[in-house]
Each structure stands twice: as structure tokens, then as C-alpha cells.
Amino acid sequence: MSGHSSYVPKTGIERWLDVRLPIIRLAHDSAVSYPVPRNLNYLWTFGGILAFMLVAQIVTGIVLAMHYTANSMLAFNSVEHIMRDVNYGWLLRYLHSNGASMFFIAVYVHIFRGLYYGSYKAPRELLWILGVVIFLLMMATAFMGYVLPWGQMSFWGATVITNLFSALPVVGETIVTFLWGGYSVDNPTLNRFFSLHYLLPFMIFGVVGLHIWALHVVGQNNPTGVEVKNVQKDTVPFTPYATVKDIFGMVVFMILFAWFVFYQPNFMGHADNYIPANPASTPAHIVPEWYFLPFYAILRAIPDKLGGVMAMGGAIVVLAFLPWIDTSKVKSMSYRPIGRQLFWAFVVVCIGLGYLGAMPAEGGYVIASQIFTVLYFGFFVALFVVGLFERPKALPTSIADSVLASKGGSAARVATATAAEPNVKG
Amino acid sequence: MAHATDTSTGTTRRDFLMLATGAAGAVGIGALVVPLVSQMAPDAQTVAAGAPVDVDLAPIAEGQAIKLFWRGKPIFVRHRTKKEIDEALAVDVATLRDPQTDQQRTKAGHEQYLVVFGNCTHLGCIPLGTAPGESKGDFDGWFCPCHGSHYDSSGRIRKGPAPLNLPVPPYAFTADTKIKIG
Amino acid sequence: MSRTSFRLALTGLTAALSLALFQPAAQAAEAGPKPPALSWSFSGPFGKFDRAQLQRGFKVFKEVCASCHGASLVAFRNLSQPGGPEFTPGQVAALAATYQVKDGPNDQGEMFDRPGRAADRFPSPFPNEQAARAAQGGAYPPDFSVLAKARTYTRGFPTFVFDIFTQYQEQGPDYIHALMVGYKEPPAGFPALLPGQNYNEYMPGHLIAMPKPLSDGQVEYPKGADGKSPVPETVDQYARDVAAFMVWMAEPHLEARKRLGMQVMAFLTIFAFLLYYTKKKVWSRMPDGSPAH
């Protein structure tokens, strides 16, 4: 996709720099002249939104670390010190805690966009796998960050999640002891979690660099899933076209972000985390943050310790194999009558699992969780099977053609919709 | 947009729109900087803890000095002897690096008490000369061992690299032997 | 998304919900009534504390609650800062001086008591949790500093989704108020109360160690011009006032937050509109000059 660079150094300094360290050329090629499919919809702005959220989390996090104390005796009060005494401390802390949730909202949209439009398929397998790696790193970072205020949910979340590793045969107990740095979750645990919570975002930053590099090698997917054939006709330069669209997307996303930060700052948190950690008493309902709930539901659905952990891990790892699980030749679900329904069913299953993860693990909830866990993994099996026999709709010959067709007006759209019906039933 | 012709009005409108958007973006980024920078300033608890403190000078015998802390900084309070006061008054102010009379550095009627910040004005070390037995330097005041600055019995810089006299903190006598610093 | 897949999605969602929603009906009956949602001056995007209410709430806290409950994160100086009860700094200094605060060690190496200063935090009634439990028959009176944010009740689906839009977030004060007015005789069939147990309608499990703390006329409120308190001196009013005061203690910058929020929202909305039209302009022509979609 990169091909020939269109950068022309204008001044003497730029020419001098260009033969020694072509950093301006790199920036120009990847953020200005980089060709972007002209038919991207707003779901494609979430990559930029995620980059913004990562930087926002790192900036607010560094600032919060200037005031936070990673000591089990002082951590809770130091967070409250930030909330009460530090200038704009309440803002920075609420930006950071709600920022984590917004980060996950954006990443889930980003993931489901990739799922719908088949962005994991050749030649983007590695791009997708790097994304799964980022997702895993995000989960680790978010989990350790949630431990830092040292409230009841912090403490018991840390206890439960670290105990997951004890399910591993032979080495499990040793791993858990090493995670704790003691015989239970205590000050050493908090201290190392703080260290890692500070480290991991920079690892995410690095993997995001690879993710973007891989993206710029293979180019962006687009709603048709048809690759760029003619750069002139099918693409627009990143700047100004994608830049202004991405910034618009970011600002709209910021409105949602600000709504929570300023008006509902504790909506996505848990009240129990305003109770200082107490190793002698577990809260009645311990639940992880909302973004972990679907996986938590899968964990609890399996009535076996190791089995539950394996199922939960598998639910994430299976995503990395998606490029080879999906057998369809067509990328975009827009042209896959059955695949599309599978996709929406999967969305419902994930939301359902999220709901069940928040409910107590008893009676009907457990049975429902088990059904939904089967459905979750069933999606991947179905995707494999359906791809073998599904008859996709006709793809547009090029991106430019699809843009022209959609300009044709509603008449053309109705025609495609009715054409889709027999396929669905068949 | 069909009417995006390059007429003069069209260009003006586009320029204005771009300008307004760019300006709004700049304002937004500027506003973001405010909390990020102002969080570096002392927080409310630190500011509140820096409220004035009361000090009782009665226990300080003539010729002795004490070290106390206000806002995290050391403050020297010296109960000067007659000899020390006379030395301080005898200096020709015009010859000083940072010209100040002894009267400017003490409170009238309480000349025996000298109250100064205890950080060398060179690079912030604490000069010797407060505790008994410590070197008071060449001028019966304080001597900073870090880089060899000598202060006289009025806390004025006399020799060495320090540029200024030891500053006098804001304080007032609330009784004959009681002061409020701050 | 075609109509069929939408239908499928709906069916799935309904199935998921019906599976899950059968369950909580039984639980809800057991958990007792939900605290009524009161109207608070500080709710909503323009919410502000009622200064007089915070001052009354402080009086209730000081005269009743503070004998067992601490507020260890709150400093006297907070009482005069903007957005709170806004006592004058002079009132705060005088109030602080009535408390004895542990300080030290002095030159003899001993801890000593001195009159409080504005910068001091509220002294807790007990030196530590163990001492509190020992004095309270095993129960621990929780610290009030962030309690209004640490107490809640289940809103349930779909109410919690609506809460995003209505900005309802006053579960804490609603629960605290309900708890104060929820002391009742146990219903028939309820197991006999042991010593140190009290029945409360809104307490999860209905058993609470704290005896009914408030009674009508217990705290004398400042009189108005007519020689009477402008608000009734009742348990209900005391509970409202102290709950509001506790919200302020837990969220002392609430007013500043909501005020800044309105400015940020206004700015972002304008900026978004500007960007939208800029984006339309940019996309109105393709790089080769041809008009776009």
C-alpha cells in the first residue's frame, strides 16, 4: 500500500534531515498522503478514537501517579486526597477511571467492526492478532489499575483474579504466590501492580505502533471488503479527508466521555470500592468492571475451576484464530446473508453474557450463562461451517463502483434489499 | 455539494469555517492544559498546612539559636548577644553585597531576636552555626559548608558564592517573647 | 442490517432477558422495599447544594452522628471552601478550636493534645476500628467521609439504563435517608431480635446494630425571623439534611464538577458542529476535483 513516497522536502533543513533521518517523510507518508478507501464509514473512526484514549489515559495516569501512594495503608486515602485537595484532582481522577471504561467501549466497537467487515481476513491476519494482543494487554492494565484505589472491589477483585492462576496444575500455586509476593493479596501485591500498571500502557503503545505499521502495509479494509484496485479512484489521501473525519468522530466520542466524567462519574464504577479494602470481609456481590462481565460469566458458567479458567481464556484466545476459523471468501457481512445474522446473534450473546456476569451466580442465571457460553463458542463453529456453503451476494467490482451505486439513491438500495431476501430464506 | 464553486464568497466561507474550527481546536487544547499544569501547584492540604505558626522565644537563652520549620523550610531564630548586635550594627552597609541594615532585618524593640530562613541563598544547603559548637564562619553568624558562604550575625552574606542575605520570613511579635510566623 | 437479522437479534435479546428476568422477582420480594427517590437540590446537570441544608446537616452530624461516626478525610477548612456549607473562615477557626487534636511528639517525646486548627481533619471518635467495635458491642460505625458514595441499592434492568439519561445517581443519599426513617417494629413472623439488633425496613437483611439514632425535635435548628425554624425539626428532615451533608463530604467538588461540565459540553457541541461542517466541506470534493457523494 505504501509504494512510492510523494514527499518532497521544501526547505534546506528538510532536505538535510531527509537524507539523514527521514522522519518527516515517514510522518508525511503515514499521516498525510497515506491512501484511505473513500467509502469508510464512521465505524472506522474508532481506531483514531482509541489512539486518543490511549494517550489520554497515559497523560492523566502520569499526572495521577504524581499524587498517588502505592501503599496498602495509604492508597485509599491518597486517592481521596487527589479527589479533595489536589487542584483539579477530581477531574483527573474521574477522567482516568471513566477513561478506562470509554477505552473499552471504543475497543469493543472497534472489534465488532472488524468482525462485521471481516477485517481479520488475509492479508490482515497479523494486524488482527496484534489487536488481540493489545486487547489482552488492555485487560491486564485495566485490572491492575482497578486494584490501585485499594477499595473493597479492588482488593477482592485482585484476590479472585489472581486466584484464577491457581487453577493451573502443578505450577498454579507458585504463580499465585509470586503474583502476590506474600501469602495473600497485600502491600507487595499493590506495589507491584502499580509498577506494572505504569509499565503496561507503554507496552500497549509499542504494540499499537506495530498494529498501525501492519495496517499501513496492508491498507485499510472497507465496508465492501473489496480491496483497493485503483488508488486514484478508490482512495483519498489521509489528510485532510480522514483526519477531519477522525477528529469529528473523536469530539463526538468526547461528548459521551464528558457526560460520564462530569455528570455520572461513578455510574460505571462500583459503590463498594468507596469502602477501604478489608481482608476480613468480602462484599456480598463481587463483580468485575463491566467490560470484563461477559468473560466473567463464562468463567462462572463452568462448574469446574480449571475448566472455567480455560473457557474464559479460550473465549479471548479464540479471537486470534478467527482468520482461519472463518472459511468464507467474502470479507464483509454486508454480502453474507447468513453470516450477518450470525454476527448479530453473537452481539446479542455477548451482551447477554455481560448481563449474566453482573447477576449473582445462582439458579437460572447459571443455566443461562451455560447456554450463552455454548452459544458464544458456537458462533465460531457456525462461522466455520456457514462459510463452506453460504452463497454471498454479488460484490461490487470496486470501491469506486460501490460509492457510485450508493449515490444512485434509494431505488437501488431497495432493489438490493429485496434481492437479499431469497438468499436469506434459502 | 454541487454549489462548491470557487467563487469569492465560497472561498471566504470555507476559510472562515476552517479558521473557526482551528481556533476552537486551539482553545480546546489550551483548556486541557489548565488542569494538567495547575495540578502541579501546591494542593489545598499543603496550602492549609502552611498557615501561620506561633513560636515561643522565651526558652532560647542569650547566645543560643533554634531551628524550626514552617512550610517545610528551616527557620533560624537566634537570641543574639550584645557583642553580636554591635558587630551587626558596626558594618558599613555600602560595602555589603546585598545592602541591608540590621534594623531592616529585625523588629524595633526586639533587636536581640534575629529570625531568618535557614537555607543558604546560594543553592539551598543549611548553613552551620545554629547548634552550639558549630562553626559560625568568619563573621559570627553562619557558615555554609557546601560551597563556603559566610553570613554575619545579622544573617547577611559577607563572603563566598551566595548572592543574597538570608531572607527574613514574614512574622510579627504577638507578645514580648512570642512571634507568629507567616 | 436487514429486517430479518434485526428480527433475529430482537428474538435473541428477548430470550436472553426472559431467561434472566425470571430470577430476580423472588429476590426483590425478599430484599424489601427500595428507598424512595427523593428530590435533591444537587441532582441533575445544574445541581447545587443548598447551603442552609448543608449547615443544618452538619449540625445533625456534629450533635448526633459524630459521637460514633468519624469523618476522617474531611478537614475543618473544607467547611468554608466554595461549594460546601460555606461557613466563614472565622466560624471554622472557632469550631476547630473546640476540638482537641492529637499532635506531637513534643521536645519531651510525648504526644499532646492541642486545640484544632482549620487545616486539621475531623478527629475520629475512636482511635481505631478495634476500639470502636469494643465500644459498640462488636459493630463498627463506618466513617462518613465517602459513605454517601459507598452505599447504594440495586436499580435493576432497565432502570439503570434510563439512569444514564436522567442522571439519577442519588442512590446513596436516598438509601441513607430511607435507613434513618426505616426503623419499624419487626413484622409478625420475623425472628425475635437479639440484644444489639434493631429492625430496619431498608437495611439489607433488616437487622442493623445501630439503634434508631434520630427522633423528632432532637436537634435544634437555627430560628428564622419569626422565631421558628424554617424547616420542620423532624426525623425526616434531619435525615434529608444529614444525607445531603454526607453527599457533600463524599463529593466536595460536586458543584465545580457540574459547572465545568456544562462549559465543556457547550464547547464540545459547538466544536463538533464546526468539525461536522468542515468535514462536509473537505469531503465535498475528491482530490482530483470531482464532486463526491
Could you characterize the architecture of this molecule?
The complex is a heterotrimer of chains A (426), B (182) and C (293). Chain A has 426 residues and is mostly helical. Chain A has helices at 12-20, 23-31, 46-65, 75-84, 89-116, 125-147, 152-164, 172-180, 187-218, 231-234, 238-263, 293-301, 305-320, 322-325, 337-358, 364-389, 399-407, 410-425, and strands at 35-37, 235-237. Chain A has a two-stranded antiparallel ribbon with strand order 1-2. The two termini of chain A are 38 Å apart. The relative contact order of chain A is 0.12. Chain B folds into two domains: 1-41; 47-181, Rieske Iron-sulfur Protein, CATH 2.102.10.10. Chain B has a three-stranded antiparallel beta sheet with strand order 1-9-8, with no helix packed on it. In chain B, a hairpin with a 4-residue loop joins strand 5 (140-144) and strand 6. The termini of chain B are far apart. The model of chain B is unreliable at 1-8 (pLDDT under 50). The longest helix of chain C has 30 residues, at 254-283. The two termini of chain C are 21 Å apart. Residues 16-30 of chain C have low confidence and may be disordered. The A-B interface holds A 59, 63, 66-67, 81, 84-89, 91-92, 247 and B 25, 34-36, 38-41, 43-46.
Largest sheet of chain A: 2 strands, antiparallel
Q: Cα-atom Rg of chain A, whole angstroms?
A: 24 Å
Tally of helical segments of chain C: 10
Task: Work out the helicity level of chain C.
Answer: 40-55%
Please identify the structural class of chain A as seen in this structure.
Answer: mainly alpha
List the helices and strands and how they pair.
The complex is a heterotrimer of chains A (426), B (182) and C (293).
Chain A: H1 12-20, H2 23-31, E1 35-37, H3 46-65, H4 75-84, H5 89-116, H6 125-147, H7 152-164, H8 172-180, H9 187-218, H10 231-234, E2 235-237, H11 238-263, H12 293-301, H13 305-320, H14 322-325, H15 337-358, H16 364-389, H17 399-407, H18 410-425
Antiparallel strand pairs in A: 1-2
Chain B: H1 8-38, H2 44-49, E1 53-56, E2 65-70, E3 73-79, H3 82-90, H4 102-105, E4 113-117, E5 140-144, E6 149-152, E7 157-159, E8 171-175, E9 178-181
Antiparallel strand pairs in B: 1-9, 2-3, 3-4, 5-6, 6-7, 8-9
Chain C: H1 3-21, H2 24-31, H3 51-63, H4 89-97, E1 100-103, E2 112-115, H5 129-135, H6 147-150, H7 159-166, H8 171-181, E3 198-199, E4 207-208, H9 235-250, H10 254-283
Antiparallel strand pairs in C: 1-2, 3-4
Helix pairs in contact in C: 3-9, 8-9
Subcellular location (chain C): Membrane
Family (chain C): Belongs to the cytochrome c family.
Keywords (chain C): Electron transport, Heme, Iron, Membrane, Metal-binding, Respiratory chain, Signal, Transmembrane, Transmembrane helix, Transport
